[in-house]
Amino acid sequence: MLERFMAFLTEYLNTVSPAELLVLVLIIVVIAGLIGGMIAKKLNQPLLLGYILAGVFVGLAYKALLGSSGNAALDSLANIGVALLLFSMGLEFKKKDIAPIRNVAVFGSLSQVAFTFLAGAGIAWGLSRYTEGWFQSGISMFIFATAFVSTSTAVVLKTLASRGQMGTLSSKVMIGMSIVQDLTVIPMFMILSKLGDLSGGWLSAVKPLIFGAVFMALMMTVGAKYLPYILRWAAMTNAKELFLLAVTALALGAGAIADAMQVSFSFGAFLAGIALSESEYGKKAIGELMPVRDFFAMIFFVSIGMMLDCPFLIKNIVIVLIVMLATSFSRTAFLAIITWCSGYRNVIPVAMFFGMFATSEIAFVVIQLGKDGGFFTNEVYSLILCSVVCSMIIGPLMDCLTTPVYAVLKKTVWKNSFHNNISVPPPELEGHVIIAGGENIGRSIAKLMKGLNLPYILIEPVYSEYMKAVHKDIVCLFGEPHQPVILESAGVSRARLLLAASAAFPDNYAVIRQAQKLNETLPVVARSNNAEELEMLRKCKNVFEIVQPKFEAGLEMTRQALLRLHVSALDIQNYMDNVRFSHYRALNEGINGNALAESMRSFAGLVELSWVKLPCECGCSVIGRTIAESRIRTLTGVSIVCVVRGEKEIITNPAPDFVLQKDDILALIGTQDQCRKFENFCGIDLAGTPAGAEQTAKA
Asked: Is the pLDDT of residue 554 over 50?
């Protein structure tokens, strides 16, 4: 029965049209990706690991039914997948991200590429001595080596994201070096492939290189200037569908133009992403493209698994493992050494050694072009494919070794070694304030904390702002505040208070949620801008105060306006205090806080801080007498907490023997009734509004 069904299915598949075959292959890939992804998620592994393994298993049955007739459909889907994947990586490429690590990212990566290229060429030469007919020329050996020089940016990104390590210094170094590696692969391949075919003369060999250079120059200049206008037109329509179509069209269109100019289709999409990365629509483009990118990335990884030559892998498992381990560790070992020599310490060299194991997806572009150009035999093609796929499967598992190996090294070899303060704050911090982001505001808060000799640490995600803080001797940490590893490095479990000071509310909300997972009792002061953000903060525990910068800016502008209208500065201050008190009391109602914060807020509702200036006449009953002699506290109930005398002298918490003088400005704490008693006691008008101040001025 089963044999008859298989025969029927095989006969049906051999009669379908190419279009129907493409649809069928797409359905198979999607179902395989769904099953593989669910299994990987259940086992707490990166999804791409499930995609590749699902593709391997499905590929066995797929090839048994279709043979080689479905390879063209698989190649087409894989090419679109890797093109969109590289396009999105180009969108995420930012010069400002590379700038702070440019020395190790650029020069370190280029030296590693050269080292791994020579090592790969040596491996190919050794294989040529062991095998017969696999490598047809020296150029084929060099192209073989080119396939292994770069790390898979997709595997690194997804692995870091699944581990919650995005935003750390090690992640920035890993991603920066991986992108620089990718930028070197295609030009290297183009040069080598054309050197292998000089039958048409040097001009025919150099022509594609010239086309590639021209395409790159045009994309980085003209494309970077005018491509954003297409996205701007799509954004002005306010239709998400049109914007998504515009982004996808730019990616695939740039790839098609590059392909017509004899440059790689995927490399063209990659350059288009880089050209758009610095535009104002870059973030929105990657946000809109993310679901499509993830879908085609799934198709790409499943397709790669399906194309794996399992019979070749089983027959040559030893050679495949040797090639995979030799090429991957020649890359990661050099990266670990170069980062160490560049001054990066702590976990970074270990992360480079284990986290950069997977070979880049660009290797598939190289081997496909190498096979089409006649440089590779079927054996070499299968050897590279198997080695790269195996490295992608093992890569996330190798990354799991980073933490335990680093822990062992810290206890043994690096026990007394120097720790770079760029990623580790002072270990003695306890009972401190964590200032999350905020740029200028964050630095201002940190300077105030420093001036008051209070323990604090500033987490700054922008490197330029981080360097400004370093130059001001501010205790700071470079990284994304919402990342668990960054918060743990900042001592969130020992902190006394968190200030979520970023201008972007999503960043504040993310850091609050993550911090309270690590420290459930940590009090929070948050920054928000509107009612929607306030509602989200109401659901967070221990957010006991909310500050609204726009409201504060409005108050300051009002204060400046009233000063220009010659309203008394004291009356303005009293009025502003009343408005601020009323606004924030209503704003913070219902905010979940601890018992202490609620008690403080209740007490704040019972008292007011008022400012009053003693008259210049000596008829006032308190002028010339001490606070104790005046019996102000006994007779009126108010407390004098501050006295401003002249333009520079400020006396806080004046003693009972302090003598009050005319023109002194007093800061009083008390209820409204108590302040009115003080007004009557002194025979002065304590105006609470600008209108009252105007009446006082007229009198």
From this structure: yes
CA pair distance 541, 498, nearest whole angstrom: 12
d(CA 46, CA 672): 63
Residue 104 has pLDDT above 60, yes or no: yes
Contact criterion met (CB below 8 Å) for 308 and 254:
no
Place of tokens 């070992």: 333
Edge to edge, what strands does the sheet with 456-460 contain?
476-478, 456-460, 433-436, 497-500, 524-527, 543-547
Q: Looking at the predicted structure, is the pLDDT value of residue 596 above 80?
A: no
Does the pLDDT value for residue 333 go beyond 90?
Answer: yes
Identity of the residue numbered 19: A
pLDDT at position 206 is 67
Per the structure block, which two tokens stand in for 257? 């133009």
Residue 118 burial by Cβ neighbours in a 10 Å radius (0-12, 13-18, 19+): middle
Q: Residue with structure tokens 């659901």? A: 539
pLDDT reading at 62 higher than 90: no
Higher pLDDT: 201 or 562? It is 562
Residue 275 pLDDT: 83
382-421 residue pLDDT tens:
899 899 989 988 888 888 888 888 878 877 776 555 444 3
DSSP state of 493: G
Residue 532 predicted with pLDDT over 90: no
d(CA 132, CA 121): 17
State the average pLDDT over residues 607-622: 70
CB atoms within 10 A of CB 424: 15
Phi, psi of 651 (to 5 degrees): -115, 115
Determine the average pLDDT of the residues in 454-463: 83
As a whole number of angstroms, the distance between CA 366 and CA 362 comes to: 6
User: To the nearest whole number, what is the mean pLDDT of the chain?
Assistant: 77
Q: Which residues make beta-bridge pairs with 652?
A: 642
Give the integer Cα–Cα distance in Å for 577 and 609: 7
Cα 570 to Cα 665: distance, rounded to the nearest angstrom:
9
* Strand (E) or helix (H) holding 389: helix 378-399
Instruction: Produce one character per residue of 631-641: b if its CB has 16 or more CB atoms within 10 Å, e if not.
Output: ebeeebbbebe
Of 498, 494, 464, nearest to 481 (Cα)? Answer: 498
Alpha-carbon torsion angle 200, 204, 209, 212, nearest 10:
-130
Phi, psi of 611 (to 5 degrees): -110, 140
Q: Which stretches does DSSP call E strand in 593-674?
A: 608-613, 639-645, 649-652, 665-670
**Which two three-digit tokens encode residue 360?**
């880049």
Select from 671, 665, 675 the least CA-distant residue to 608.
671
Residue 448's alpha-carbon distances to 435, 453, 492, in angstroms, are 12, 9, 20
The strand pairing partners of 645, in sequence order, are 649
Q: Which residues contact 504 (CB under 8 A, 6 or more apart)?
A: 437
